[in-house]
């Protein structure tokens, strides 16, 4: 059994991170990428009101395209009380409430209201990796009142008091029905017991999922181009939760987990891809194995041309290239890395007719990765679009001016065309959201322009320059937590990105275990993820007056991946402390506190084992809890993934009524938080 597509939430519809600047002020200046091209956008802000309440976009503002206001689909649909689902094969989005099923086809002006066709002025469009809907079309399809106030540039939607009768279902509906969730096949469940990976990175890229019997039911679910998601019904998992040693430049990791949907249990296996790639799924004749095969792709041609002050480059191949496109400096280069790809073209590309590209070359970067490099001048910008058999790259002069990013010293240099006082520069650290803002004191758009500066390094992804509230703002979208410092160097300004360890003597990464989709354990009416967050916030407050710089892995009910938590600690911290709660069966029920560690070497006298001892001693001394000791654990990702001293604190047992009563008390939480903070302060002196 294989089901071709299934119902997905809108989170599956969002395919990437926001790629251009946003501004919520009188003027929005940003770069919009849609229909395969960049579009410089500058317009007065558009406000959205629903029943008199302003709707504030979180990461993408309302924009006007072809004189119609567009908003992110998820945002506007949810605010109007609708659910959104997605049909990948038909490339249609469904906006559903109790009365209506509205269907929007991507890049089509035809929509459907309960099966009845209607026409829009502009289609639903993917803009900056966000699916944007025409607000007026959606409101009309839901039969809501919508008005436009030109002086305030406000779209007002009225839903209050609306009563409608549901239109009759058409005799011949033109909208495909949403499929039912599959039921589990009958018979004995098989166990998925092995995942085979290629022997080495340059070997044939064939993966196999093996079971101890015939696999009777499976389906592939589309999430995005960088994932292969396979659901196995009537199956149990004997697989590791995560496999990272894949011997592949295409598959970065394989993840597995049991799931249950409407009472149907299944095992989900996810292949995380580095980029979009063609693949084939086959099953062995005895049905005990499923094979995922990636055939090697050959680059057949690179063609170039220049027109209207834009350089156009097309890389053609006999399959999906799965490109990783980024920039390097000194000299400035646009790099196209192609995994599992070989070349059938010359090593030198003739770029003589191009305006901004000075050199082009092809070479084997690694055994399994082909690299194509284009040297370009300062402040050029590029966009690219990948099809099934080619990659189209456009290079043009940037809308940014008088700046250069030096990746060697991780510094953005600004020419001093106009002077400002660096003491008046405001820096906002939004590291939990992956960015920082540097706000100059005034409008310098005439000097520095606006748009996106692509960096693509390990430290920094992009810099977005825009006008916000009359000031020029640089948004640094970072791949690592950084400290930002600005200096006046005489003829230029330097915005430096520094590792926190190079700025602060003592850096702590403080972690609240679980969160979001992962509740952790529970017992006696308490949920682990909530209590760990409460304790984290209290420990953070206790350390505010110390000389320790504290970074948090989360400060709300979200779920950072455990490997991300560990990597962050390795990148920027001197130590990591992760707060958890315990649960266990037994007679009597276990109670008390224990600390978990793996063998790590610190910078000095501090090791993970010593950190575990110090933290446990402080907690037991402050609370009188039963001490369960320190425990060496080699089966936990956070402990295995870190290289700096790291400890997991199992504070109490939620399964024990006495422990649960203690930890539910705010005064007791304060006592534990103070003890943890004191232990951290003592341990930092040993590093």
- DSSP helix fraction: 10-25%
Output the radius of gyration: 28 Å
Taking pLDDT < 50 over at least 5 consecutive residues as the criterion, the unreliable ranges are 1-25, 163-185
In one word, what is the shape? globular
The averaged pLDDT comes out at: 86
Query: What is the CATH T-level topology of the largest domain?
Result: Aminopeptidase
Q: Main beta sheet, described?
A: 6 strands, mixed
CATH architecture of the largest domain: 3-Layer(aba) Sandwich
The tally of domains stands at: 5
Return the CATH class of the largest domain. Alpha Beta
Strand order of the largest sheet: 48-45-49-52-50-51
User: What would you give as the CATH superfamily of the largest domain?
Assistant: Zn-dependent exopeptidases
Range of strand content? 35-45%
Q: How many β-strand runs?
A: 52
Give the N-terminus to C-terminus distance in angstroms: 57 Å
Structural class: mainly beta
Counted by DSSP, the helix tally is 10
Counting copies of identical and different chains, the oligomeric state is: single chain
């Amino acid at each position: 059994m294989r089901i071709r597509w299934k119902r997905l939430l809108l989170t599956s519809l969002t395919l990437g991170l926001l790629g251009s600047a946003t501004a919520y002020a009188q003027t929005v200046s940003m770069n919009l990428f849609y229909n395969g091209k960049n579009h410089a956008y500058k317009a007065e802000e558009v406000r959205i009101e629903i029943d008199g309440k302003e709707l504030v976009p979180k990461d993408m503002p309302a924009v006007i395209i072809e004189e119609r206001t567009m908003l992110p689909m998820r945002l506007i649909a949810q605010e109007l009380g609708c659910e959104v689902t997605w049909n990948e094969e038909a490339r249609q989005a469904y906006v559903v409430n109790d009365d209506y099923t509205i269907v929007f086809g991507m890049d089509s002006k035809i929509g459907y209201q309960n099966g009845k066709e209607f026409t829009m002025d502009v289609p639903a469009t993917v803009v900056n990796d966000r699916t944007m809907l025409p607000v007026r079309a959606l409101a009309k399809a839901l039969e809501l009142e919508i008005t436009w106030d030109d002086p305030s540039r406000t779209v007002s939607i009225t839903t209050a008091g609306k009563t409608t009768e549901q239109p009759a279902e058409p005799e011949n509906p033109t909208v495909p029905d949403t499929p039912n969730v599959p039921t589990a096949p009958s018979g004995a469940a098989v166990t998925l017991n092995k995942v085979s990976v290629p022997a080495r990175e340059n070997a044939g890229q064939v993966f196999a999922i093996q079971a101890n019997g015939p696999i009777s039911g499976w389906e592939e679910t589309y999430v995005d181009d960088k994932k292969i998601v396979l659901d196995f019904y009537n199956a149990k998992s004997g697989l590791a939760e995560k496999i990272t040693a894949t011997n592949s430049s295409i598959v970065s990791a394989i993840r597995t987990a049991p799931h249950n949907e409407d009472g149907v249990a299944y095992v989900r296996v996810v292949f995380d891809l580095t980029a979009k790639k063609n693949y084939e799924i086959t099953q062995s004749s005895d049905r005990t194995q499923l094979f995922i095969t990636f055939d090697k792709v050959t680059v057949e041609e690179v063609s170039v041309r220049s027109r209207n002050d834009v350089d156009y480059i097309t890389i053609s191949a006999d399959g999906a290239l799965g490109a990783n496109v980024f920039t390097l400096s000194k000299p400035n280069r646009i790099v196209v890395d192609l995994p599992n790809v070989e070349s059938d073209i010359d090593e030198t590309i003739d770029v003589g007719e191009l305006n901004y590209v000075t050199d082009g070359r092809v070479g084997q970067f690694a055994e399994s990765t082909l690299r194509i490099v284009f040297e370009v001048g300062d402040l050029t910008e590029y966009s690219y679009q990948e099809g099934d058999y080619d990659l189209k790259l456009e290079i043009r002069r940037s809308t940014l001016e008088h700046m250069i990013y030096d990746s060697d010293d991780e510094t953005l240099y600004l020419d001093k065309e106009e002077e400002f006082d660096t003491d008046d520069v405001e820096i906002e650290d939004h590291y939990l959201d992956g960015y920082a803002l540097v706000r100059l004191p005034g409008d310098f758009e005439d000097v520095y322009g606006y748009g996106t500066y692509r960096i693509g390094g390990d430290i920094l992804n992009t810099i977005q320059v825009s006008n916000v509230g009359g000031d020029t703002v640089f948004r640094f979208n970072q791949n690592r937590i950084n400290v930002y410092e600005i200096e006046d160097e005489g003829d230029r300004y330097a915005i430096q990105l520094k590792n926190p360890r190079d700025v602060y003597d003592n850096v702590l990464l403080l972690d609240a275990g679980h969160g979001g989709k992962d509740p952790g354990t529970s017992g006696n009416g308490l949920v682990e993820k909530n209590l760990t967050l409460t304790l984290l916030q209290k420990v953070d407050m206790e350390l505010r007056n110390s000389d320790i710089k504290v970074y948090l892995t989360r400060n709300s009910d979200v779920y950072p991946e455990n490997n991300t938590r560990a990597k962050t600690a390795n990148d920027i911290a001197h130590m990591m402390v992760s707060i958890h709660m315990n649960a266990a069966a037994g007679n009597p029920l276990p109670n008390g506190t224990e600390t978990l560690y793996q063998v790590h070497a610190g910078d000095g006298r501090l090791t993970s084992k010593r950190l575990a001892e110090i933290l446990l001693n402080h907690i037991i001394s402050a609370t009188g809890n039963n001490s369960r000791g320190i425990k060496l654990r080699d089966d936990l990702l956070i402990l295995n993934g870190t290289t700096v001293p790291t400890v997991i604190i199992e504070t109490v047992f939620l399964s024990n009524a006495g422990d649960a009563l203690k930890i539910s008390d705010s005064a007791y939480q304060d006592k534990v938080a103070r003890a943890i903070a004191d232990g951290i302060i003592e341990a930092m002196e040993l590093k």
